[in-house]
Design a protein that fits this description.
By secondary structure, this protein is of the alpha/beta class. The chain is built from 14 helices and eleven strands. Keywords: Glycosyltransferase, Transferase.
């Protein structure tokens, strides 16, 4: 059986740290908490689970803090989590099983990260992260913000999921301020840095500036393919917000350069045409989204609903607007296969029943006349 060090960096996490640590109790052979300046009870809570609590001065650099936390590890493998992450019971069992069966030649294990959920608790947004790594490989964290662990060698993909259950929002503007400081001091951003800087600008509604850096990132041609695809979608959002419809459509179709069409981008194209009132073209893109096969080994962002539920619901609207109520109802029933208890599906069923009843009443009235 392999041994595991859990390494975490924390700051002011008294509301959620115990929940996280409880979820890995009995799995991690040692727990190492690196605190970057808490002013609440975070360290006291950490000491209820471990006596290995360290201080590290915050330097506006997540990678520096994570590398410092990894330096304290002594077990064969290192697992990292954030304080607002948890392992659900099924994933606890899977991780225990992996710990018992893991081949010592494995250098890194990719695990799913579940970060978006619908009202019923179903996962709607997920991607993969490098979660468990061999300590002897001395892998290094890169990037001051939106950091990643640079892994290589024998990397395997696991069905184990880490679930993100945040109880508080991130510090507003923190990441953007770090990027702005780097640039103000004459520093340069890596391709990944450009991508995430553009995302931070978009999220702060600086759409024109964001579009500039998304274009710079894409034109550079050095980004990870998954980031290039999502950059196209984000760039389209910026152009839509600026009222530049043609550039919005160009940004979305540009994503097809990097891989076969993704359902997320096809849905975005469907929404663009729907907003323009062209339900025929909108239906084309939603149908295409519904026909696509979900990539099996995609490590990038994946929005589950775009691969089934959303195109079905949007086709329901489109066909209803196109005067094809029977086809619209069929699409609503297809959506029900993905989410049987969905409120929107039930609402549509009521709508279609009422419509049929109204037609029947009109027909009876005509016959009586």
């Amino acid at each position: 059986m392999k041994t595991i060090s859990l390494c975490m960096i924390v700051k002011n996490e008294e509301a959620q740290l115990a929940r996280c640590l409880s979820s890995v109790r009995g799995i991690a052979d040692e727990i190492l908490i690196t605190d970057t300046g808490s002013t609440d009870a975070t360290k006291e809570i950490a000491r209820q689970f471990t006596d290995k609590v360290f201080d590290f001065p915050w330097e506006d650099d997540f990678s520096k803090a994570r590398n410092a936390s990894f330096a304290h590890a002594s077990m064969e493998y290192i697992l990292w989590l954030d304080a607002d992450d948890v392992l659900l019971e099924d994933d606890r069992k899977k991780l225990k099983a992996l710990k018992e069966s893991l081949d010592g030649t494995v250098d890194a294990v990719m695990m799913q990260y579940h970060t978006g959920f619908d009202a019923a608790g179903n996962v709607t947004f997920r991607y993969y992260r490098e979660r468990l790594v061999k300590r002897a490989r001395h892998f290094v964290w890169k990037e001051p913000v939106h950091e990643y662990l640079e892994v290589y060698g024998k990397v395997i993909q696991s069905a184990i999921a880490v679930t993100h259950q945040k109880l508080k929002s991130a510090v507003p503007g923190r990441n953007l301020a770090i990027y702005e400081r780097i640039l103000a001091e004459g520093g340069a951003l890596s391709p990944r840095g450009l991508y995430y800087y553009a995302r931070e600008l978009k999220d702060s509604r600086q759409y024109e500036k964001s579009a500039h850096f998304f274009e710079q990132f894409l034109d550079g041609g050095k980004g990870w393919v998954e980031d290039q695809i999502t950059a196209c979608e984000s760039l389209a959002v910026c152009y839509a917000q600026m009222g530049q419809r043609e550039k919005q459509l160009q940004a979305l179709t540009r994503s097809f350069v990097y891989d076969t069409p993704r359902a997320e981008l096809c849905c975005a194209l469907g929404y663009a045409w729907k907003a323009a009132g062209d339900y025929q073209k909108a239906a084309f893109w939603f149908r295409l989204a519904l026909s696509l096969q979900k990539p099996k080994n995609c490590w990038g962002f994946l929005r589950e609903d775009c691969w089934g539920y959303i195109p079905c619901m949007e086709l329901t609207v489109c066909y209803d607007q196109l005067g094809m109520p029977d086809t619209a109802e069929q699409c609503n029933e297809l959506a029900a296969q993905f989410k049987p208890d969905d409120a929107a599906v039930q609402y549509n069923r009521t709508y279609f029943r009422a419509r049929k009843q109204a037609q029947a009443d009109d027909s009876t009235a005509v016959q009586k006349a």
